[in-house]
Amino acid sequence: MKISHVGRLVHCGAGIAVAALLVLGAAKTPAGIQGSGLQAFSTIGSVTQIGSSWIVVGGAQYITGGAQFEIDGQPGRALQIQVGDVVSVHGMAPGGGLAYIATDVIFSGNVRGRVRNIDPAASTFQVLGQTVRVNSQTLFGARDFAALQEGDEIEASGFPDSTGALRALRIDPAAVSDPARVVGTVQNLNQQRMTFQINSLTVSYGGTQVNGLLAEGATVTAEGSASPDGAGLVANTVNVQRGSLGTPGVAGRIEGLVTALDSNTYFEVDGQPVEVNAQTHLSLRNAPLQLNATVRVSGTFDDNGVLVASQVQTEN
Q1: What is the pLDDT of residue 3?
Q2: Cβ atoms of residues 258 and 290 within 8 Å
Q3: For residue 300, how many other CB atoms are within 10 A of its CB?
Q4: Quick one: how many helices (H) and strands (E) in the chain?
Q5: Which pairing describes strands 251-263 and 266-269: parallel, antiparallel, or unpaired?
Q6: What is the Cα–Cα distance from 4 to 201, expressed in whole angstroms?
Q7: Beta-bridge partners for 43
Q8: 3 falls within a domain
Q9: Range 231-234, long-range pairs (CB < 8 A, 24+ positions)
Q10: Which CATH number do you get for residue 142?
């Protein structure tokens, strides 16, 4: 649970919220969406601005007055979202240059637990076997990196790089009572011992309900009790994420780091496949597309869950 911003009041723009609900009421089925001129969208990116009933994610504005919020797997509120959080947004785009209307805003911190192995020279530390990197753009909800101490309980949100390290965009304090939590890729799955690894963390899931098909390379969220040394996690829940952010025909906007670069026409952003073709507009700053570059991609998901890019923009 995010605890650093629960004391603020929510102020919603009533007119915008009502308009959003009226538009969404006409789009409860795919046929209704097509008939009304609406297109469903799915977005993932960092929050850069927050208004009374809107947020800016990955450079685009989304109306949130009628949206449902989910925070770390639990029902949440708009006021729990902070600048720097990486969120998923789903909803409808009316078209004609009108604002995107969010139906769901989901925050899932990448890792939550106790700080270990602080390395000031490298600007890194570890939480639950995950390397967290900070830089001048990292936002802190409380003490900054220089004041961070071994044993502090934190939750970090950001973009994983090609090595599995997390480039943190925001770090907030967490309560000692909050369960340890990590999002990552399943490695070294052992179905006999009922264990797997997420980077150097060993997760034990024996006796745990696993939601989804657990497999090597799957992205999962594991939550439970950490071992005293932080090298192990006894999970009480393991949720397997679906392979693609969007469904066929849905508009997609993703922001993140290039984690795989197979060719000039195919790359991945945190595991999400992206295809580039002759119609893709490329806006590459200073250098060609490369691993760990920050990108923003817009396009449409195909039948295989690949985001066919209409635009690719690099941020560094």
Answers
A1: 44
A2: yes
A3: 17
A4: 2, 26
A5: antiparallel
A6: 27
A7: 89, 253
A8: no
A9: 231/129, 231/200, 231/201, 231/202, 232/201, 232/202, 232/203, 232/204, 233/128, 233/180, 233/182, 233/201, 233/202, 233/203, 233/204, 234/204
A10: 2.40.50.320
* Residue 7, in any domain of the structure: no
pLDDT of residue 97: 62
Instruction: Assess whether 79 and 150 both reside in one domain.
Output: no
How many structural domains comprise the chain?
Answer: 4
Strands 60-63 and 54-57: antiparallel
3 state SS for 225-277: EECCCCCEEEEEEEEECCCCCCCCCCEEEEEEEEEEEEECCEEEECCEEEECC
pLDDT of residue 39: 86
Distance CA 178, CA 192 (A): 29
Q: Which residue has the tokens 């006796």?
A: 207
263 and 187 share one domain:
no
Q: Provide the CATH number for the domain around residue 303.
A: 2.40.50
Residue 288 is predicted with a pLDDT of: 78
- Which amino acid, residue 69? F
Cβ-based neighbour number of residue 161 at 10 Å: 19
In a domain, 295, yes or no: yes
Contact 146, 134 (CB under 8 A): no
| Alpha-carbon gap, residue 290 to 259, rounded angstroms | 9
pLDDT score for 111: 98
Same domain, 124 and 40: no
Domain range enclosing 187? 179-241
Q: Which of 83, 107, 131 represents a domain boundary (last residue)?
A: 107
Mean pLDDT by 10 residues, the chain (316 residues): 39 36 38 58 96 94 96 94 97 78 96 97 98 97 93 97 96 94 97 96 94 94 94 96 84 96 92 95 84 95 95 87
